[in-house]
Amino acid sequence: MLILAVESSCDETAVALVRDGRVALSDCIASQTDVHELYGGVVPELASRRHAECIHALARRAVKESGIRTDEIDAVACTAAPGLIGSLLVGLGFAKAAAFGLGVPLIPVHHIRGHVAACYIAYPELEPPFVALVVSGGHSSFFEVTDYTEYRTLGVTRDDAAGECFDKAARAAGLGYPGGPIFDKLSAGGDPSRYPMPRAKLSGNPLDMSFSGLKTHMANLINNAEQRGEQLDLHGLAASFSQAVCRELTSRLAAAMRQTGLTKAVVAGGVAANSWLRKSAADALPQYSLYMPPASLCGDNASMIGAQGYYEFLAGRVGGMSLNARASCPADEALC
Q1: What is the CATH T-level fold of the domain 2-117+297-314, as seen in this structure?
Q2: Looking at the predicted structure, is the pLDDT value of residue 12 above 90?
Q3: What's the confidence (pLDDT) of residue 109?
Q4: Which residues of 140-155 are buried (b: 16+ CB within 10 A; e: fewer)?
Q5: DSSP 8-state assignment for residue 204
Q6: Nearest to 179 by CA among 37, 35, 297
Q7: pLDDT at 39
Q8: pTM (2 decimals)?
Q9: Which homologous superfamily does the CATH classification assign to the domain defined by 126-294?
């Protein structure tokens, strides 16, 4: 089955052709980092305009690079939730037009499930059940994935997402945007014990997370150093902060594995490209099978949407022309 997939939930426009949920024939991405870097974060209105400007040409390029004809496409999949509503509507509108013009089904895909499905492309042998940690600029959640379209939420962040925490800490330090790659590069060779970092203490669900306190601590540390005229060790600061964020994630991932009794773990999402998180996850789960997609499949891309779209289609979850985008939606809830 050949699926034309569209992703436009935030600031990356992406179109891909995916076969049977496991093979990406093409995946074209138009980044907007240069647009939003000036503002230290994504500006929703600018993001949706950029999507509208480039999505048609990007789709033509994806089809051309795949080497297939448009009459060979069996379905169109697109991200329908969650995300920036203006950005989602651009992708959904294009997907509806493509599905209608080609006379094929329209498959709505949850963005979080898409990130997990990136591992189906990277690891063709991977099958549920497993525990999934999805960690990105807007999401930090644990799931028990019992089947390709059956999710159960185990834990979530109660405030900031881990990726957002990286971005805000980098902005406070005047290092630029996006923060994750900047901290990852700076932390190389840094001493992770250079600056002590706090740990969140939460009541209730032990798999829930909080990153707002860590973000505030970083802002105060940077501000106090500036007021005293002290020079911060940026390499040590980046290493200390990266270790603290990853410690919160991987300690809970190990707990989730023990709680569920499962033997396979998936770590996906934009922050899964972070070298500290990859090493920390491997160190925390030596007795489990760990699956992390390559960096090219960690960020927002359309291959992952096509991969998950295939399994949504097999489950009979097909949308119509009245389908609408949703800015927020739990990953364990069906979109149609």
Answers
A1: Nucleotidyltransferase; domain 5 (3.30.420)
A2: yes
A3: 98
A4: bbbbbbeebbebebbb
A5: S
A6: 37
A7: 83
A8: 0.94
A9: ATPase, nucleotide binding domain (3.30.420.40)
